[in-house]
């Protein structure tokens, strides 16, 4: 039986963000076909009982070696692509390495660090791009979340010489090099339970809940939503806005971002008191269904730009799973698909009046959930984890090393390029120094003395 190692860079446990959820759910699917081990930082013991697991620590190199030992015993290793910068052994594995790049990190880095100092922004971006280079050179298969992302990664791979003629002859679509494996939905439906209405102080049973279901990262736009709230409560005074998960489960590695602080400040500035806007903690993964079922409208708003174009908003799949109507900004590929099914309402980025109108329209409807039930049912079939993971399952059934890796590795590395640039700069500095001497008084004096010596002593001098 094929032995698979799934390596998560985020904690796997009761409270998980998107990357850890993805690692966990793909592990569960693969575990129905193969022998799978899940390695993750600070993994929760109860998850270890459900699959073979290994907890490692970023601060303990001994546990890193345990991960490396597992990798060398496996037939396939799957991880976030950017772990190759933290685990160098991924660069020379004797078995295929599958790089999950559903988050295009160099693009996300531009938004993540937008408020940092210029030198820090540059450093973080260059670190992300270095990881991208390593992925392009070493991955045997790349996993992305949409065809739009796939085009992006094919461009990156073309720049690194991975689109080889011999690969094209075997697979003209190049699906054996870059596979689309979106985020998915669980097969089991969410289970209702008291969660928000009549449970949270300030939210009564008859209130209508507007739910922001994930983190408040710098690329999101909670400020437009907050500015729209006065219009919403004027028409629907029973509306209550809930932000779930304002703090990442791994707060040490992903601290609160500037956009979250701005949202809290704007909330106070607009006088949106604690009876109207609620700030919650990250909800346990197994309990999130009750919160989604207890909400009336979901929200996902972002800023325009390249991040939104290439993003795949994983929390929208929670809306699909629970049948929660949503208001979403235009621009990201998943929201546009859901809108095509009539499941969500799209609004222009930053349009306060449009956001308020879309929310009010959904709250006006007698049962917005029921009206969209058929659309959500179709989407759940499309995005069922078993279905979306099929390309990965096929790869693990017949693992293979990727073509074109040798040619990609022969390209200059980032270190080579840095050394060359440094040498070129030093040569230019020396040439400028020589030109300065040639045009300076010292050189003119030496030239005069040389002419005088020739004049008095002849050519022998």
In words, what does this structure look like?
The structure is a single chain. With 461 residues, this protein is of the alpha/beta class. It has three domains: 3-184 and 387-410, Rossmann fold; 208-382, Rossmann fold (3-Layer(aba) Sandwich), CATH 3.40.50; 415-457. It contains 21 helices and 13 strands. The protein has helices spanning 18-30, 45-50, 61-73, 105-112, 118-138, 147-159, 165-170, 222-235, 258-269, 288-293, 306-310, 316-322, 333-340, 352-364, 368-371, 373-382, 385-388, 390-397, 405-410, 414-439, 441-457; strands at 3-7, 35-41, 52-56, 76-80, 97-100, 141-144, 178-180, 208-212, 239-243, 277-279, 297-300, 326-329, 344-347. A seven-stranded parallel sheet has the order 3-2-1-4-5-6-7, sandwiched between helices. Helix 13 links the parallel strand 12 (326-329) and strand 13. Helix 8 (222-235) runs parallel beside helix 9. The protein starts with a strand and ends with a helix. The model has no long low-confidence stretch (mean pLDDT 88).
What does the secondary structure layout of this molecule look like, with pairings?
Blueprint: E1 3-7, H1 18-30, E2 35-41, H2 45-50, E3 52-56, H3 61-73, E4 76-80, E5 97-100, H4 105-112, H5 118-138, E6 141-144, H6 147-159, H7 165-170, E7 178-180, E8 208-212, H8 222-235, E9 239-243, H9 258-269, E10 277-279, H10 288-293, E11 297-300, H11 306-310, H12 316-322, E12 326-329, H13 333-340, E13 344-347, H14 352-364, H15 368-371, H16 373-382, H17 385-388, H18 390-397, H19 405-410, H20 414-439, H21 441-457
Parallel strand pairs: 1-2, 1-4, 2-3, 4-5, 5-6, 6-7, 8-9, 8-11, 9-10, 11-12, 12-13
Helix pairs in contact: 4-5, 8-9, 8-14
